[in-house]
Amino acid sequence: MASNRNHMRRGVHQAMYKYLPGCWADFTIGGGANYAVHVEHWNSMRLEGINQKRLLRVVSQRVQAFQNASPIGAAAIVNFASRIDEENYFVLTPKVSETERAIVTSVNPLLFVCSACGKVHRYRNAEEFRRRRDDRCSACGRNVKQLKLLAFCKCGYADGLPMPKCKEHGSKYIVRRSSGFDFVCSRCGKKAGFAFSCPVCKEKLTIKPALDSAHYFPFTLSLIDLLDKRKDSLLDSEDDWRGEKVVLAQYFGFIGAEEYQSITDAGKIPQSEELVQRLEKEAEDLRGMGIPEEFVAQILEGKRRNDSSGKILQAVERVGQVLSLSVAEDITPLAEEILEYDELVRAKEVISLSEAEMAAEMLRDGIRPDYTTPAEEMGFSRVQLCSGVPVVFAAYGYTRKERECSAGVRLHGFPQEMEKKNIYAHRLETEGILFELDRARVLDWMLENKQILPEDAPRERSEERLKIWFMDHVRLAYIEPFTEIDTSRQDGTITKSVYTLLHSISHALIYEAAEICGLDRSSLAEYLLPNVPAVFIYCSNTQGFHMGALHSAFQGHFDRWLRRARERSAHCIFDPVCIDQEKACAGCLFLNEVSCQHFNKDLDRSFLCGRFDHEQQNKQFGFWEDR
Q1: Nearest residue to 272 (alpha-carbon basis) of 232, 311, 306, 298
Q2: Parallel, antiparallel, or unpaired: how do β-strands 89-94 and 77-78 relate?
Q3: 3-state SS class at 294
Q4: pTM to 2 decimal places
Q5: Cys staple from 4: which of 127, 265, 300, 617, with CB 3.0 to 4.6 Å?
Q6: First-to-last CA distance in the chain?
Q7: CA 522, CA 504: separation in Å to the nearest integer?
Q8: Angle at the Cα of 389 (from 387 to 390), degrees rounded to 5?
Q9: Would you say 449 and 620 are in contact if contact means Cβ atoms under 8 Å apart?
Q10: Do 424 and 92 meet the contact criterion of CB atoms below 8 Å apart?
Q11: How does pLDDT run across 333-356, given as a tens digit for each residue?
């Protein structure tokens, strides 16, 4: 230990999830002695080369969502700035240095017990422990051992156990007679105790081992990093969300690829303002000449159609007509979702199913597998491997004892390291597989299960109309990270049905991918695009990426992966309770918080395998169920 603290070198990704400030960790000091240590703070540096504006905006939305879901409102948010943006926050990442360690810790708890006589010793602070850690028991001269127990509360308080005290003789003669909290005074034989109430909120403290995960729940998120500043400029510079509507117009096919590229290259709609001003002046001149208003409108419309920027404005106007959304909070996330989708579809390296079949043919002694048919049978319209995808992983706070937004639970921000508050992040270029659902198949499944009425479905089944329908009826604003989707709101049932189906498919695929790849499930993560709808399953650490684990599974075992995911979705060791009541559980679909975007909410295995409800005498048809 140096300067009364321990310093640990860990991989950045591991540190982001296991060694964040405020948590406890296991650490071995020179000589082999093992201690529980508290992570005091990090020595960090600013993370450059990412879209910090967007990351901080998403963090702000997550923190606000926690506050909105909490029964105690604003009191549930601790140590966050009133505005989470570039003006008030830095995005930091652990410093890589030969002289300065990234993670700074101190030994805690400071309560130690003699392994022979049970005498209890407590160091006043980490500095005293550093100076006297080789001392032996003052009563019998034997070794003392750290009592690795923490007292913590859902308000955020946590610390090692205090020194038990005898009412008559204080703490001088305290011994521990057995495991647990059996402390007595050796002078009078009376039980010794300590306060079991939280010094902050006065609630009862929970006592558990220091390395128990219940005392610390990190709050993290991942984003596909949209680094093209020109696209950011397009979204920021245009009035009436025209930039967002341009992105959606190209997705719907209203704007061609070349036109869209020219707009994004310029970062704005070319000459849009000049055209409007020119046409307004011409309209005034025509009216001054006495030309009827209907003819003025026809003349101006013709000029708009012949002008390249006019065609773009028409496409933008058409987006406004086909979508019922009318506020930035709805439109901007949709545009960003499509930009993320484009980032995946046009990744640095893309391998299609047919290309994977050819590669597998060489591995299987000239026998070419059929990957396309099972993919189509399971409702996928596009499946492709995407490599070189930029993903930002971020941690922005933590809770203790509970992750849910229940009464008394507070979300804490991290200690401030520099002149601004901070979150932590790192960027990784990774690989993954994009699974895009067949929109028509999803609609048919929803109709079959009476989740929508025939009149609610689009009359046409063209690609354009299907894209518009899913963009207009799946409401991103309803998908909160900490709560189930509310079906009572407009389009709430559609949103929950589509999202739950997509989320359940994602978890089923991750479960089997881990088996086939040989990776731990926590090495894989999901990225959901509900309005497409599609899911990107990717390696969330460098180990899996460098091994080419998903690449190998995609090229060599894709058919087996799908078959096993489908078969496994029909069974759980906790059935029938799981399928009938819980819908999903740790025995079938649940993943840890590193892998799941939505804290295992909105999952339903019956959406995949089907189920007959005997109480309601109703059949739920599964998306993967044989008809």
Answers
A1: 311
A2: unpaired
A3: helix
A4: 0.85
A5: 127
A6: 66
A7: 17
A8: 150
A9: yes
A10: yes
A11: 999 999 999 999 999 999 999 999
